[in-house]
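Run: sequence + adenosine-5'-diphosphate -> complex structure.
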Amino acid sequence: MKLWIEKQRYLIDFTLASLARRKARNIGLLLVYTLLVFMLASVTLYTHALRQEAARVLVASPEVVVQRMVAGRHDLIPPGYMEKIGRIRGVQTRTARLWGYYYDAVTKANYTFMVPAEDAPAKGEIVVGPALERSRGLAANNGISFRSYSGKLHTFIVAAVLPQATELVSADLVLMSEESFRAFFDYPVGHYTDIALTVANPQEVKNVALKLSAALPDARPILRDEVLRTYAAIFDWREGIVLALFSAAILAFGILAWEKASGLSAEEKREIGILKAIGWETGDVIKMKFWEGMLISLTAFLVGFVAAYVHVFHFAASMFEPVLKGWAVLYPHFQLTPHIDGVQVATLFFFTVFPYAAAVLVPIWKAAITDPDSVMRG
Amino acid sequence: MIELSGIRKAFNQGRDNEYWALDGIDLRIAANQVTALRGPSGSGKTTLLTIVGCLSRPTEGRVRLKGGDISGLPERFLTEIRRQRFGFIFQQFNLIKGLTALDNIILPGYPTGRPRHELLARAEELLVGLKLGHRRDAKVEWLSGGEQQRVAICRALINDPELVIADEPTANLDSHLAGEFMGILESLAGQGRTILLTSHDPLVVESNVVQNVVDMRDGKLIQHR
Amino acid sequence: MLFQPAIIALLLASTLCVLALVGSAPFAVDVIRRWDIRSGSERQLQLERRTYLFSTLLTLVLVLQLAAVLLFVFNAEKMSGMFVGAMCAVGTLNVNAFGFPALNGKIAVFFLAAMWLAINHVDSRARDYPLVRIKYGLLLALAPLLAGSAWAELQYFLDLKADVITSCCGSLFSEGSPTIAAEASALPPIPAMWLFYGSLGAAVVLAAVHGLGGGRQRWSGYLLALASGVAFVATIAGILAFVSLYIYEHPHHHCPFCILKPEYNYQGYWLYVPLFGATAAGLAAGAVQPFARIASLREVIPEFSRRMAAIAANGFFLTAAIASFMIWQSRLILLE
Ligand SMILES: Nc1ncnc2c1ncn2[C@@H]1O[C@H](COP(=O)(O)OP(=O)(O)O)[C@@H](O)[C@H]1O
Ligand SMILES: [Mg+2]
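>> structure
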């Protein structure tokens, strides 16, 4: 065992020296390799961060949201509707919610106006999310006017700005009191947007939903877990599509690696011949080449991954944003929370290192079986 | 030490350009002696060396090393034998550029897994023995021809071989350096090593360091002195 | 569900393995037909050199399979959120009938590749390469198995349909989806404990007997391989039935995969690494026994199989010791 370790150390030593001697030749491959890892890792880290963000949003949301459907379209909850739900076993709380979208012509952006269940701002005051803070240059105690859909101008005082923590959720949020909300949107008294139910036992959620649709045929219960699953699937799917698109790049990279590995320079061929003549075995040469591949792979992987990490979490994935961030799902400009996931690193490894290994295997073998007597002939 | 019987070696066997480089060689190489193969270019000297040195296998015939038949061995085992028992000095020196003299010398020791400090100490000893101690950290491409050959000799000796094989060792040296080489050869022979070399340089084959001369032509032996 | 990164990665790995083996099959056939160790011809030399390629290929397959087993389980774990009722990897694997066969196939290919490499190892130590034909015959036999396991995996993924809302906020909850057995079925703890400690103990004893006999008794080699296989299955059953309960400190959480998760400090690796290593070594010791009488292998095989027995004995002992330690550390009281 000690002998084996000693041997591997020699081989690594030799490989390092030989890589250093052929910098120019290896640097190109290393660059391409790193770039590939960088791109793939950016995609993966980015989508994963989005998924996390979405999950975080949804964790805070209620287990079941009930909407009312009229002619297959989402409609307001009329007065007395909540009472009709009655008591369903397993439901902890029922809350009627008020929220809506507002298009701000000044910033050309959509905001979510909402009445929070607790700690609603006083009348005439609002709490805004960081996106608004940025786009309209708002700070606490500033005043701001919005023209409502009925044409009237409403002025509010900004009481506070929401923290950045989960920007994806709160970025475009505007919180206000029920009175202000109803006044702003001319929302009919007693009507609500939807109803939120909290259910303590996750096993019960499905039953609750079943009972709901039995009691109120025009109700549409939306389950949080279902939304979560859908998001996860959508994100995974997108990531998968992008990776599949990148498969062309992976293939090209594999071909490049194959070519690099088989197009040994005369110098390198001579070296392998010398090594074999002076007593290196074919297996030793294969191992040496294997370590060479390992060193290149690990370097590329590490550098590419770190670069992708910086790109995604410090530069907000500026290169991929347009591709990955769908308009319907997310809002522009927000900071992602750094997160690394083992499965993703492993997946990335499968996408980069294994194709490389497979591509160079045969060329390495071909190089390693050089005739040991080749150096004796001219 | 080594017995060859009925050795034949073909290149490009079974193709149009099939060529028998060796055609029925019977030869005994005596232990602890210096043997030289002499013959015109293309007579098969180098080919014979590669067979004796386990660099290649004969197409036909038997090779015995100390009585054991090694002619049919797979490359893996030939390599093992070669590594443990033979040291090679090539005509072109065949040092690896970019590595220092010391690193070149210890290369044959890598596959043995011998501890590095041991290898380095041995390499140092050999270098000093050939008056090259001061050049140990020089890259080999900066060395002169004579120095390069001495590094190559050190490399051949790092695993302490019984048999040293040299192909045209003086072909790339001037008379003065060739003379020096013969001196080194003499001291190696003095250490009791068996030496097999090829040459058509009279300085080598006619020197009295060489005990046996074997003449070759067209892949056959002519006479045996 | 094919467009999931980890799934693409796994399919890619399987494709690589299958291609490697299928692609090398003609060459293997060539080796079997033309091999003549006594010949000094150039063709024989080429065939000999080809053997290096095959052992490198098989090593790659081995590594890929091992990595794929891990990724497969992790991915199942991660996807469990997408299936109603699936709490962890077991649930995801139970989504359709191909989940567990695919996993078992991977594990089987891993062990078979390990056995092949063991035979390859002893063969390449003998000066006349006596097992070349057998080796390449086995390689050809391994190819369909590998393809079968890849096929099961593909079927599993093709059949995997997440319970998702199809249009943005359009659907109802996943009514039609079948309920998934979220838990693996497990033995009752007491018999499982007997089986667990009994089989591990037997494997350790047999490995010790074989090892102390210098690896020379062939019967103990065969028995060791058998005991290793049994111990592997029994250990997994034991982990399911009671070890995992102690780790989770929960009387009903039977799962062989969750113990690999960070929530449980990756404790599973401490169990599985020695278990897989020991099983592979024990099987390897058995795999070489049929050839122990061949003249050139008389010395090589006992030496090799003695070393494998040592690894197996230590590995199985370690597995049992670590499991016992985990049980001892646990606050769960399963047995009075
Ligand atoms: N690899 C090879 N392929 C084809 N012919 C070869 C090869 N190596 C040597 N030969 C031929 O074998 C003959 C003997 O070569 P060699 O042993 O190098 O002779 P010497 O060393 O005596 O000059 C030469 O005619 C040479 O062309
Ligand atoms: Mg010559």
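>> summary
Chain B has one domain: 2-224. The domain at 2-224 of chain B is CATH 3.40.50.300 (Rossmann fold).
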